[in-house]
């Protein structure tokens, strides 16, 4: 599964009163307006930083210059997004709160405040489509960011329900959503059979037209257990790499009876969620569990060098790890080499490793014989996220416990090893998942996928489809604007003509 959890250490929304208290003794010139990626805030002490950096002199020089009426910026001063460049807010350590310790409503309110792109996209969907007769089932990790998506969907007038495996349920969120009219078939205390039954109950109670899925688990269940319902689906929007692979396998086998939008394959999803958000949140979650210096000097093997593995490998290298990469695709292995990592066969790499990290999303990536060859005490973790990416199902004494972050495992005829997050995706089971701002982009693509399925209703063949590039560009433009940036606009359209070559001198 790819998804989310709340940003691990998140700052609560600041009330106007709190802001007032924080700044009351400072004269206005000691504060500097900076903008976070998503809003303008105030930073104290910025004046002294500017003095030390020598920018005062420039300020004095600028005082006499005529200013641009709109921005107040001296005419002639560079206009390279000055506002955005100066609009950063450091709210101070005293403001940092772990949202996992807040109530469900507080955590959801915080997430909602930081997901403006999803909000805009859903507004656009609702203005184009009447969703009052539509039923949407969502099968995603149930945490505050997913709750924002569910709320946004429900606000369009659609009937909305959610299911989720128990290990990925934030109970305070599940409880809160039930009070808001969302059909919740998920509970942190359920066993596997109860979670499966909950998913079937959601299909029966909601009779969804649309599904948002993670890992293709829910839609595949529908195909197997409720084939008539599956055949009537308008379509499915799939969040993850592993889910897209599963749907492609279904399509190849002639078993796919509905259109699937590969949300994962949109650049605004994979290029940010997989490449940035997952690497970042897996690193910070591991630091929370193991200590902030856990990577320094560590011999670490990353298995799988797709966007997830690459994002993680580059981050831990920066934190001092000696990273080796294993990828079964020679192209990915070569890319790793060009990025500066030795690429090795897993059989060679794992016996040397202090930490082995699976980033493939492929069953039994770390097999029993691999574990047998590892050093005693070496650590195993998954940052991809399908069941048994590490072959834990072959360990007779392994019984997972929801929420356990670290444990020892005994490998038959092998060493004792250390396992994080019971072999599930470390960031969303032992940490807060991908950052909110990243999930804002991923869920905006989900919203666009639903709109596309509705726009193309009856036109799309059963099979895996991708969103047009224009969707990515639209979402990117909104996300840039929310941060105070923009793409460049050429003065004229100089697109290439195939008829013009270097031999055409008249051109
Ligand atoms: N934890 C999260 O929050 C999160 C977020 C996004 C994606 N994911 C998941 O992470 C996984 C990886 O995502 P991605 O986008 O990088 O996928 P990808 O398919 O682009 O990359 C996976 C790489 O692993 C390699 N690989 C596959 N099996 C292998 C094996 N047995 N040994 C060595 N290499 C092998 C493939 O050749 C490929 O290069 C997927 O399952 C995806 O769903 C997790």
TrEMBL record:
Give me the ranges of the annotated region Disordered. Answer: 1-78
Q: One GO BP annotation here?
A: S-adenosylmethionine cycle
The source's superkingdom equals Bacteria
Q: Does the keyword Cell wall biogenesis/degradation apply?
A: no
Sequence ranges of Basic and acidic residues compositional bias: 17-33
Pfam families with a match to the protein in the record: AdoHcyase, AdoHcyase_NAD
Q: What is this protein called?
A: Adenosylhomocysteinase
Q: State the organism of origin.
A: Bifidobacterium aemilianum
């Amino acid at each position: 599964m790819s998804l989310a959890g709340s940003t691990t250490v998140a700052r609560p929304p600041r009330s106007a009163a709190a802001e007032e208290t924080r700044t009351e003794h400072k004269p206005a010139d000691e504060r500097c307006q900076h903008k976070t990626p998503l809003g303008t805030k105030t930073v104290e002490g910025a004046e002294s930083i500017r003095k030390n950096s020598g920018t005062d002199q420039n300020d004095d020089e600028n005082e006499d210059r005529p200013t641009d009426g709109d921005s107040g910026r001296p005419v002639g001063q560079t206009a390279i997004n000055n506002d955005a460049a100066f609009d950063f807010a450091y709210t101070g350590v005293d403001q940092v709160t772990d949202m996992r310790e807040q109530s469900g409503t507080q955590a959801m309110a915080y997430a909602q405040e930081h997901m403006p792109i999803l909000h805009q996209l859903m507004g656009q969907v609702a203005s184009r489509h009447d969703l009052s007769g539509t039923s949407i089932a969502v099968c995603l990790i149930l945490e505050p960011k997913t709750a924002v998506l569910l709320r946004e969907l429900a606000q369009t007038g659609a009937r909305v329900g959610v299911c989720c495996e128990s290990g990925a349920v934030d109970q305070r969120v599940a409880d809160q959503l039930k009070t808001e009219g969302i059909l919740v078939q998920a509970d942190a205390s359920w066993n596997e059979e109860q979670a499966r039954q909950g998913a079937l109950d959601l299909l029966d109670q909601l009779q969804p037209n649309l599904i948002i899925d993670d890992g293709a688990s829910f839609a595949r269940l529908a195909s197997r257990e409720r084939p008539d319902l599956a055949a009537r689906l308008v379509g499915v929007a799939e969040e993850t790499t592993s889910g897209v692979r599963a749907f492609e396998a279904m399509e190849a086998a002639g078993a796919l009876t509905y259109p699937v939008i590969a949300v994962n394959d949109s650049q605004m999803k994979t290029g940010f969620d997989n490449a940035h958000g997952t690497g970042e949140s897996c690193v910070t979650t591991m630091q929370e569990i193991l200590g902030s210096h856990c990577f320094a000097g560590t011999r670490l093997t990353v298995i799988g060098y797709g966007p997830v593995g690459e994002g993680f490998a580059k981050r831990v290298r920066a934190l001092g790890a000696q990273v080796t990469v294993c990828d079964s695709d020679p192209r990915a292995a070569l890319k790793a080499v060009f990025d500066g990592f030795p690429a090795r066969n897993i059989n060679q790499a794992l016996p040397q490793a202090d930490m082995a990290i699976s980033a493939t999303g492929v069953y039994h990536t770390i097999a029993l014989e691999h574990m047998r060859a590892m050093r005693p005490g070496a650590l195993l973790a998954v940052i991809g996220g399908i069941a048994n990416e590490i072959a834990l199902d072959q360990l007779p004494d392994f019984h997972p416990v929801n929420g356990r972050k670290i444990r020892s495992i005994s490998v038959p005829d092998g060493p004792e090893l250390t396992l994080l997050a019971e072999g599930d995706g470390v960031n969303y089971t032992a940490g807060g998942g991908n950052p909110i701002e990243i999930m804002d982009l991923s869920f905006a693509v989900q919203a666009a996928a639903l709109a596309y399925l509705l726009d193309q209703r009856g036109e799309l063949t059963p099979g895996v489809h991708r969103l047009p590039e224009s969707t990515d560009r639209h979402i990117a433009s909104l996300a840039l604007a929310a941060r105070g940036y923009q793409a460049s606009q050429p003065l004229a359209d100089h697109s290439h003509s195939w008829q013009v070559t270097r031999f055409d001198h008249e051109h």
